[in-house]
Amino acid sequence: MDDRTRPASASKPASLPASTPARRPAFRQPAVLLWLLFLLACAVTIARTQFVTDLSAFLPRAPSAGQRVLVEQLRDGLVSRLILVGIEGGDASSRARLSREIGATLRADPQFAAVHNGEAVNDARDQQFVYAHRYALSPSVTPQRFTAAGLHDALGESLDLLSSSAGLVAKDLLPHDPTGEVAALVDQLDSAAQPATRDGVWASRDGARAVLVAQTAAAGSDTDAQARAIDAVKRAFASATRTLPNATDASAYRVVMTGPGVFSVETRDAIRHDVERISVLSLVLIVALLLTLYRSPRLLVLGLLPVLSGVAAGIAAVSLAFGAVQGLTLGFGTTLIGEAVDYSIYLFVQSSPSSSPSSSLSSSMQTHRDAALRAWIAAYWPTIRLGVLTSVCGFASMLFSGFPGLVQLGAYSIAGLVTAALVTRFVLPHLQGGAHAIRDVSRLGAALARAAAFAPRLRWPLAALAVGAVVFAAWHRDTLWSHELSALSPVPAASQALDTRLRADLGAPDVRYLVEIPAASAQAALEGAERVGAQLQPLVAQGTLAGFESPARYLPSDAAQRARLASLPDAATLTARLREAVAHQSISVKPEAFAPFVADAQAARAAPLITRADLNGTSMALAVDALLTQRDGHWNAMLALRAPASASKAANTSSLDADAIRAAVAQAGVPDALFVDMKAEADRLYVNYVREDIRLSLAGFVAIAVLLALALRSVRLAARALAPLVAAVLVVVAGFALAGVPLTILHLVGMLLIVAVGSNYALFFCKRGAHGAQTIAPHTLVSLLVANLATVAGFGLLALSHVPLLETFGLTVGPGAMLALAFAAILAPRDAATPEVKTARLDTRADTHAATQPHRQGNPA
Q1: Which domain holds residue 364?
Q2: pLDDT in tens, 409-421
């Protein structure tokens, strides 16, 4: 309608009537007051929030027994506490000196439970302990062994050792230990793989580095404690290099570290560094983009308020619902700016006075701003609201996940997006204040209108692209999804390679195969470990197992100790049996030579039983503490199994006969004893993640489809709104398949974000205009383009991250958002393709209609 057909009352300058009440100050508006109170409540909640970084949020609500063991070992197990240290550079003797200096410093540090580098610092204590308690420790001590025949056979074996390379040691021990218990126990303790030794300390196989292994006192899940331990190693290295004879050569040496604790600290620091760096970069780009568009710092600040409100609401909601916020949830939430900032862009661009053709007729920009705002609420808010609801439906599917970590992500996203949208709708209009005029974007709008007019011509190429993407993805369906938990590893490939080298150098356990024995007490756990160990020993003899570690080897149960000590005869009986045993030996020996043996046996019979405290100061304490643990009043004994050397080279497959081990564990008759293949359980856990997420994502997609069909009152329009989103997801999936990148659950979450962000674009292109026509105005196109650029700046820049987790989000959402906008334009209804022409045609029809029916003229509002 123009001045020629406008009633006189409508053609006058729109001034504010004298009777219009004065506007309330913004901060006295009820909506603004409620918003401020809401932010205050969020701030109080966040101040009391606990932030965690362990894996507890990704343990299923109803985990299997194997999954529970997996997470407990990752959090508190032996491997999680180990820091593998390598000293590189310089010459071998200097590296050995540094190793000894570092080892001495760390052993005096209470942060470390044990430090090993091949030095004999614990050997004397270990040997003394084994010697003093040989009869309680040795499983060979039975009544049969101390009969005359048993003593004859054992003594014969010990005498044979006199002619071997160990003859000198055997000769010294023979009067005290003719049955060879000490030698047998030492062989058991040394049965595990040992590193090479150079200059008295452990070294790599090629001799290029000195190696150490340190066990932290804190759990591996305590990232802060692990960080302090890592710093302690660095300080010890720096201090040791200053003691070198030629201190100027200190720079030639460097220390490298690896292990789960090191990885967790490095990953945390890398994520923090990348999030800060990329967030600053994306914020700068978004600020520059919006400031160029708004030309007002005040509008810029107002436009970011929904984002900040959404982040606060998300953290507070998760904190209230779960009691703690997982680190991954918080990291994921920092990208909320990518979508939440869209809402204020729609408001400011689409309600700008310059977006209305009648703005020049108004003498009061304030009055016109109010009218434009009302018009925006009536015309555009329903579309934005529907877009928010589609996003909520998508993320709501995550609320039904069996994994609390994904539930947190869903709750955070829903709370954040809903809050951002409500702040945009009900708070920003009051804070906006006086009239504003953004940069003139009419030329850009006209160019975008021409591009939108041309876009539908690309429908057939897009259809071919989508079909090709489906075919290509189906062709690679076997390799499309990753089936291993390691695919989610945030550890860079270089760090993984270093870890592999150091583990090979040290012979450090990877603890892939475990037998868990839960019990109500420590003694019950040890007794169960002994019964299971007795069944596994034949498998070792057969070569099915290379060996196993058991806490009962170093700390036998009280029952086993009593039984062994009861096998020792009294002095008179033992002396008599010895006389028979020495007869007919290959070497003539007098029975009186074994008087020390008889005395030691009688002392052992009267000695107290071994306790955990007796192990202090020995290397065996480390093994017991790692393999015998207490949690929530319950005890667990762990038997760590070693695969045969020939089988351990099998990659990505189980290298043990799991059926034979399970049968042996079952024959032990220990209640709840469980054989666990840690890698298999980890992969099974991950596969469960993927399957559940796919099911929930499909359910969310169905919910979105139903919502759109009901809201748009048209299945055809709902299909039009969904088509570009589906096409964008398919093309992104095909792109990853083409690049040979298997999809993970992180890609799946990224696809949900594509749908959440892209739904707004698609709905605007499917929006019905006046007289039922489907049109999209040039200013709306500008707002969509700016919103898309802001999204790419918020999400797409994550592709520059060095952390695989963040990179995955960036590579998924960035291209997906751009494709969603382009595909929405291509698949838009044809009568929306020429908005300028269509608008002119509608204005003509409206003028004609107003002229022929004057009695229906009036305020369009």
Answers
A1: 23-52+295-440
A2: 888 889 998 999 9
